[in-house]
Amino acid sequence: MNTEWQNFLMNYHAVVNDNSILHFGNCSGELLATATTAVICDLSHQGLIRFSGDDAKSFLQSQLSCDIREIDLTSAKYGSYCSPKGRVLANFVIWQRHDDLFMQLPVSLLSAIQKRLSLYVLRSKVTITDCSNEWIRFGVAGSDAAALIRNTGDAIEDFAGPMRMQHTEKFSIIHYSRNRAEVIATYAHAQVLWDRLGQHAKPVGARCWDWLEIQAGIPTILPETQELFLPQMINLDVTGGVSFKKGCYPGQEIVARTQYLGKLKRRMQLAHITTNAAIAAGDALYSPETDDQSCGNIVNVAPSPQGGLDALAVVQHNNDRADEIHCHSLQGPILEFRSLPYSLPA
User: Of 148-152, 221-225, 300-304, which gets the smallest average pLDDT?
Assistant: First the structure.
C-alpha cells in the first residue's frame, strides 16, 4: 500500500491491516451505508501489474482467457489466467491507459502471477512491472456513482455502459455499472478526488466493496481457491471474461471442450447464509444427495448488512436450488440461494 496514501486515509480514521482498510471506525454502520447510500472505498488490497512494450497485447492474448483485442482506451474486460488443465489461477480486471495494459488482481496473488507470466516472455518485447503503489485506486458506489464522479468538476461524461472507461489528464474511470465505478489516479490527484467525493459519500472498509462484488456476481479467486474452478464455473463466460473465438492460451483446449461438449456440472450462485459461524473462501459444501461427498465450494463471502453472510458459491447444477446445501458438513449452516443480477445459460 502506498505509504503516503495510507497516511492520508488515516487522517480519515482508517484502520489499516496488511494492505487493506478494515474500516473507518464503524464496521456495521459502514456496511449498512453500503447498501443504502453513496460510499467510497480504497482498493489497495487489489494489486496492479503493468504490461508495456510493443508486444504487450500479443503476449497477453496468448496467455489469458479474455480477448485482448477487445480492450482499448474505452473498454475494460474481466478475464482469467489458467493452468494447463484449465483451472483458474487468478481472475482480474484488465484495461488500457495510453499504450500500457494494467491487470488488477488481489495483492495476495500478484507476485506469483507476475513471476509465472514473466517465465513466458522469452523474446517478446514486453515488460511486466508491479505498479500497485504508483496508482491509487478506489471504488465509488451509490444510486448513481457516475453522477457523483461527474460532479467533481472534471470533464467526465455520463454513464456509457458496463466496463466502459473514461480518461482525463488527472485520472481514469472504469464504470462497472451505473451504480458502481472505480477511480484510478496518481497520489496527488487521488487526494483531491477523495476529499471532493467524501463530501457526498461515506468512506467504508474493504469488506464493503467485497460485499458489493458478491452482489454483482463478480468472483475473486484467492490463494485458497486457486485451481478449484474452470472459468465457466465462476461465470466468466457470462461476464465477458472468456472468449471462444481467440487462439490458444494455457488451458484453452479444456475450457473450449467443456463449452462445446456441454459437460459443465457446476455453476456459481449467489447465496445468503444465516449464521455467525466462520465461513471462508474454499470451504466445502454438502448436500444430502451427495452424502459425504462435497457438492461445491464457497468462492467469496462477506458480512451482510441484514446480518449473517452473503456468498458466491459454486455448486452442482442439480443442487443450485435445493433446499439443503450446507457449509462444512451436512449439519452446517444452510445456503439460501438468491438471484444473480445476470442470467446463466440453461
Answer: 148-152
Alpha carbon distance 91, 236 (integer Å): 9
Reading the block at residue 246, the C-alpha cell is: 481467440
Specify the DSSP class assigned to residue 119. Answer: T
- C-alpha to C-alpha distance for 95 and 78, rounded to whole angstroms: 9
- In the block, residue with C-alpha cell 472468456: 242
Task: Provide the 3-class DSSP secondary structure of residue 307.
Answer: coil
CATH architecture of 231-338: Beta Barrel (2.40)
pLDDT of residue 289: 85
| pTM of the entire predicted model | 0.95
Strands 296-303 and 180-185: unpaired
Residues 77, 239: contact at Cβ < 8 Å? Answer: no
* C-alpha span between 325 and 288 (Å, rounded): 8
Q: Which residues contact 253 (CB under 8 A, 6 or more apart)?
A: 86
Is 218:207 a contact under the CB 8 Å cutoff?
Answer: no
Give the Cα separation of 270 and 336 in Å (integer).
Answer: 9
184-229 pLDDT per residue, tens: 999 999 999 999 999 999 999 999 999 999 999 999 999 999 999 9
The CATH superfamily holding the domain 3-44+133-216 is: Probable tRNA modification gtpase trme; domain 1 (3.30.1360.120)
